[in-house]
Amino acid sequence: MVIAHFPGPKTMAYRPNIESDFYADFARARNPIEFRQKIGATVNNLAFSDFAFVRMNTSEAEGPNFATNPDKQLEIYQEEGFYEHDLMVRYAKENTKPLFMSQLYVTQTPIDKRVYELNQAFSYYDYYCIPFAACNGHGNVMLALSQRGVRPVTFQRRVAACKDVLHALCVAIDYVGTCKFPDLFVGPGESRAAKTIPEPIRVLATLANGDMPLPAVADKLGMTLEATEMNLRTIKLALSAKTNNAAIKHAITTGLITYT
């Protein structure tokens, strides 16, 4: 588990190419520490101070892959063995509907009450948890976002202001982490290949591995030509590439796509 801390919140407006921007930015990370830092900067720009990302299918896990909560809080969480009993963790293993922690902890078991009280003691009054299917097809992953010292009503307003980009952020973290840092993101015995590939990456990968015009790419992927062109345009812009070949080369170099 890698731990880091980031400054207070700013704002990030939604824009159509933000998904591709996430892939391009995260793929430039040269190691897990840089990757974590890039995620943290994005989370901060989305108006949150802390995040945790965890693969739910890793049976040996004792906590999240990445977390930015205070060291002491994480230490208590691990020492008390809260991870395997946490109600939010149990929920995220079986569900993909995002929800607020304050909505889930209505009926609490004694251990859930202790987890809730631990969060409160460190001024984390709510979390927004986004579970979704891992791109390699093995169970779920979850991104949890929080803002220290902010009450639930204010926190939930912040979430509502950027919901359009949060799912794209989750998918980007999982995809880039799986492709570039499988030792950290993929559990023992799991596939290291992404089975679910984001559309902008699929378009670029199909171009890279097949000598075909764009209409043929669109037909192969079951997309409209307009959607294919838009996905290609946004990923090229995110990669600062003027040509298709330049975008393909950059994507291969940074590990976004594999050339076969």
UniProtKB/TrEMBL annotation:
Gene3D superfamilies: Transcription factor LuxR-like, autoinducer-binding domain (3.30.450.80). It holds the Pfam family Autoind_bind. Residues 41-152 form the Transcription factor LuxR-like autoinducer-binding domain. The keyword Transcription applies. SUPFAM superfamilies: Pheromone-binding domain of LuxR-like quorum-sensing transcription factors. GO terms for molecular function: DNA binding. Keywords: DNA-binding, Transcription, Transcription regulation. It comes from the Bacteria. The keyword Iron does not apply. This is Transcription factor LuxR-like autoinducer-binding domain-containing protein. It comes from Exilibacterium tricleocarpae.
